[in-house]
């Protein structure tokens, strides 16, 4: 049985390999300073970014999720952006990803949010198989402008 709970400072050594694997999957890298800042933000109860960690029966960290709420122009309640979701490759397909999304959805309901949304790469077929079961593909295309 997978257990999921909010990330705390003591989880850093278990969170870090999952975070680095997530960045590697997306062919990205961040400085050690940015990684440290990200973890500090997630584990700071006064910061608006939240995180949770999934552990298997043996206590091994097998997944992470990060999210935050933001105001929206199209609804009374906020929207919740699920920014990062990663499940260890050896446990994919076993319900961990669904459970982590459920954690964010439950949090969003408790925050009176109007919706939870996220982005993924179009060729991320493994994740999209799950996403197509738990959410609606809106058909939107993502654009961005990087700022220095």
Automatic annotation (TrEMBL):
Alphabetized Gene3D superfamilies for the sequence: 3.40.630.30
CDD domains: NAT_SF
Origin species: Microbacterium aoyamense
Keyword line: Acyltransferase, Transferase
Database matches in PANTHER family: AMINOALKYLPHOSPHONATE N-ACETYLTRANSFERASE-RELATED, AMINOALKYLPHOSPHONATE N-ACETYLTRANSFERASE-RELATED-RELATED
KW Transferase (keyword) present: yes
All copies of domain N-acetyltransferase, residue ranges: 2-148
Keyword Acyltransferase: yes
Protein name per UniProt: GNAT family N-acetyltransferase
């Amino acid at each position: 049985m997978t257990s999921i709970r909010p990330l705390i400072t003591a989880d850093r050594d278990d969170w870090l390999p999952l975070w680095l694997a997530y960045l590697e999957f997306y062919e990205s890298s961040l400085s050690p300073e940015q990684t440290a800042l990200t973890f500090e933000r997630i584990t700071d109860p006064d910061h608006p970014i939240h995180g949770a960690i999934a552990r298997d029966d043996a206590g091994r960290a097998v997944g992470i999720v990060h999210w935050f709420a933001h105001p929206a122009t199209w609804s009374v309640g906020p929207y919740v952006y699920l920014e990062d979701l990663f499940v260890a490759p050896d446990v994919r397909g076993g319900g961990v990803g669904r459970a982590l999304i459920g954690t964010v959805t439950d949090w969003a309901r408790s925050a009176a949010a109007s919706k939870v949304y996220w982005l993924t790469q179009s060729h991320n077929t493994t994740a999209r198989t799950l996403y197509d079961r738990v959410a609606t593909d809106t058909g939107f295309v993502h654009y961005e402008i990087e700022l220095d």
